């Protein structure tokens, strides 16, 4: 007698977080602000400090220190200045109190948009609790919200910094 295979639970699926902002500044000016892997704290108000051990070289490790003192680490996978694009991923150190994710990868890029630019930040993240019944605050919704809360203030701060500079 044949029986139907039992349903098997599977792990979490990556969550997509795609954010962007239009900036009334030339793409080169936007890239000059955001294109240095080690200087994210210059334009992300949630960070107290950021530094990269090898600058913009592939494999460079970046440490981010949040206002609360907690930190996370990231590693640069690709840095393409001619395309105004970089991609990176989380390292082994993620304090889930400041970023409720288990792991993530992201791409930041600048593209021309009308007479200005569009700064795009796309991330794919896994929740912090990868079990089949994740705890509240460590689930998919929390991972998406955590990254949005990290990305959106930075995008708006970059926009303000660049547009204020032009006025």
In short:
This protein is α+β, with helices and mostly antiparallel strands and 167 residues long. It is built from 2 helices and 7 strands; from the N terminus they run βαββββββα. It has a 7-stranded antiparallel beta sheet, covered by helices on one side.
Can you describe what's shown?
The protein is an alpha+beta fold. The chain has a single domain, classed as 2-Layer Sandwich (Alpha-D-Glucose-1,6-Bisphosphate, Chain A, domain 4). It contains two helices and seven strands. The protein is globular. The N and C termini lie far apart (78 Å).
In percent, how helical is the residue content?
10-25%
Q: What's the CATH C level?
A: Alpha Beta
**How far is the N terminus from the C terminus?**
78 Å
Name the quaternary structure: single chain
* Portion in strands: 35-45%
What string, H for helix and E for strand, traces the elements in order? EHEEEEEEH
**Arithmetic mean of pLDDT:** 91
Query: What's the number of extended β-strand segments?
Result: 7
Write the CATH homologous superfamily.
Answer: START domain
Query: Main beta sheet, described?
Result: 7 strands, antiparallel
| CATH architecture classification name | 2-Layer Sandwich
Low-pLDDT runs of 5+ residues are 3-8
Cα gyration radius (Å): 18 Å
CATH topology: Alpha-D-Glucose-1,6-Bisphosphate, Chain A, domain 4
Number of domains: 1
Please work out how many helical segments DSSP would assign: 2
Specify the structural class.
alpha+beta
Shape: globular
């Amino acid at each position: 007698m044949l029986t139907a295979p039992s349903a098997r639970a599977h792990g979490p699926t990556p969550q997509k977080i795609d954010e962007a902002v239009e900036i009334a500044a030339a793409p080169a000016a936007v890239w000059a602000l955001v294109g240095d892997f080690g200087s994210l704290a210059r334009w992300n108000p949630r960070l107290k400090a950021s530094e990269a051990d090898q600058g913009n070289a592939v494999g460079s490790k970046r440490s981010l220190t949040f206002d609360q003192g907690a930190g996370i680490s990231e590693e640069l996978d690709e840095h393409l200045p001619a395309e105004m694009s970089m991609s990176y991923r989380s390292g082994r150190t993620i304090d889930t109190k400041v970023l409720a994710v288990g792991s993530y990868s992201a791409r930041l890029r600048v593209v021309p948009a009308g007479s200005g630019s569009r700064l795009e930040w796309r991330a794919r993240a896994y929740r912090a609790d990868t079990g089949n019944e994740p705890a509240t605050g460590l689930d998919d919704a929390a991972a998406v919200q955590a990254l949005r809360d990290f990305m959106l203030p930075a995008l708006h701060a970059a926009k303000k910094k660049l547009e204020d500079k032009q006025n």
